[in-house]
Amino acid sequence: MPSTLGAMSAESSLAPRLRAALNAVPAYVPGKPAVAPPGITAYKLSSNENPYPPLDSVRVVLDKALDTINRYPDMSNVDLIAAIAAFVGVAPANIAVGTGSVGILGQIIQATCDAGDEVVFAWRSFEAYPIVAALAGAVSVPVPVDAAQRHQLGAMAAAVTERTRVVIVCSPNNPTGTVVHRDELEAFLAEVPRDVLVVLDEAYLEFVRDAAAPDAVQVWRANPNVMVLRTFSKAYGLAGLRVGYAVAHEAVAAALRKCAVPFGVNSLAQAAAIASLEAREELLARCDALVSERERVVAGLLDQGWPLCDSQANFVWFTLGADSSAFSAACQDAGLMVRQYGTDGVRVTIGEVEANTRFLEVAAAFGPR
Ligand SMILES: *Cc1c(COP(=O)(O)O)cnc(C)c1O
């Protein structure tokens, strides 16, 4: 046997062969856990989580759901889908659920993209987008946000090619917090070919107070190539249970269900999501309180002289360039975990009142950049 062949077979036996597409998958950077310097309470402001504890009514339902965790969950999510459909005001056939909206994003790409197909989104935007695209062997087409940290919808429409299968519009945009407006979204949709799926990711919908923001369900109704993505993780405070939903036209919703992990949305998540929709007045009151806190933080920062973009979400974005690391370290020294994005900037979640107040002090001491 020639020695090279011997070497090759020895090498190929070292490890199973993996898809080359995985080499293009960026690693997801999770928010840092809260680490307390001695003597002070640490706060996690790095994952846009809801700082409130679960509602008592949700705890009661979860406790009851524990009785049957030896059984599989309802694979078709019948009760949950009925509850969401009634809440949104659409037919159950127009709802698909998944393990968080990140789970549904994966289903969307699986349902639409073959290797080499393109997914257009703004950048910076949600870190999961390039990951789910790369996992499917699809090609990410990031379109820079403008100086005000807003989607450049004109440039995004221009980036569509015949390989484009999906365009993701994230509003409010994570990590910058800016929203797209109704008129610019309509102009954009008029430019995008009807066979390209446009995903409106509304993970932070409940924190939006800008009257020019679109009603995404209305936009969905008017456009056969639009779908809406929402989650129970942020406003509804169920991030640990992993449940989100899509509002989609029937063929798309059916395709999403085909791509779901069977029994993916577990029985606790189904029960808690239904209970949370029932308790939504109480949960939305908490969102009002978080929005008030955002307004207090933003007003304080503007007073300090920080040049902020307009956040409509439960976080604030700082474009800091080379100062990103130092700012993040200053927060961490004060027991505040924030999310640094390389040398682009830092995102700070609106959290507990005490955390927000301490953050304002750290920002003042650091000085506006
Ligand atoms: C947090 C977030 C989600 C929600 O993720 P889940 O998987 O539902 O927890 C979706 N989109 C964006 C832009 C987000 O920031």
Taken in chain order, the helices and strands follow as: HEHHEHEHEHEHEHEEHHHEHEEEH
**Rg, please?**
22 Å
Q: Got a strand count?
A: 12
What count of helical segments does DSSP give? 13
Shape: globular
Bound molecules: pyridoxal-5'-phosphate
Query: Ranges with pLDDT <50 over ≥5 residues?
Result: none
Instruction: Record the strand order, biggest sheet.
Output: 2-8-7-6-5-3-4
Strand content: 5-15%
Mean pLDDT: 95
- Overall structural class, as computed from helix and strand content, comes to alpha/beta
Helix amount:
25-40%
Distance between the termini: 67 Å
Main sheet overview: 7 strands, mixed
Descriptive report:
With 369 residues, the chain is α/β, with parallel strands linked by helices. The protein is 40% helix and 15% strand. Strand 11 and strand 12 form a beta hairpin. The N and C termini lie far apart (67 Å). The model has no long low-confidence stretch (mean pLDDT 95). The structure holds pyridoxal-5'-phosphate. Pyridoxal-5'-phosphate (PLP) is lined by residues 48, 100-102, 126, 170, 174, 201, 203, 231, 233-234, 239, 244.
